Amino acid sequence: MTFAPDNFTVWMEIPVSDLDKAISFYNEVFQTELNRITDMGPNHIAMFPTKDKMGIAGHLYPGKPAEKGTGPTVHIACPDNLEETMERFAKAGGEVVSDPIPIPAGRFAYGIDPDGNSIGMFAA
What we know:
The protein is an alpha+beta fold. The chain has helices spanning about 20-30, 80-90; strands spanning about 10-15, 35, 45, 60, 75, 95, 100-105, 105-110, 120-124.
C-alpha cells in the first residue's frame, strides 16, 4: 500500500541562535507577526500564524542550525510579490542566493537566513 495523505508536510521547525533577532527578521521579511509561545516545552518558540489558526505552519526555536546552506530548505509563502520579499530578505540581513525560479505553481527564490538556514521564498 502507498501512503498518500492530503498533506505530507505537517510542520516545520527552524532552528535559530537568537530567538528575538530571528522573530524580527521573519516578521520584517514576511510582513507577519510571529507569536511567542512560552508554555510549549522547555524552550520558548515563535509560531508562524495562519489565517484560520488551523493551517499548516511551523515555528522558530532556539537550536543549532546546520552549517550555512546545508540543511533542508523550508519554503515560505511571500506576502506580496517575490521581488519585494527578496529585497526585504536581503535588507533584513539574509542572503538571496538565486534569481527567481519559475515552476508550474508559481515562482520561488532561495535565500540563507542570518543563522544559515536555507529558506525558499515562494509566490504562487
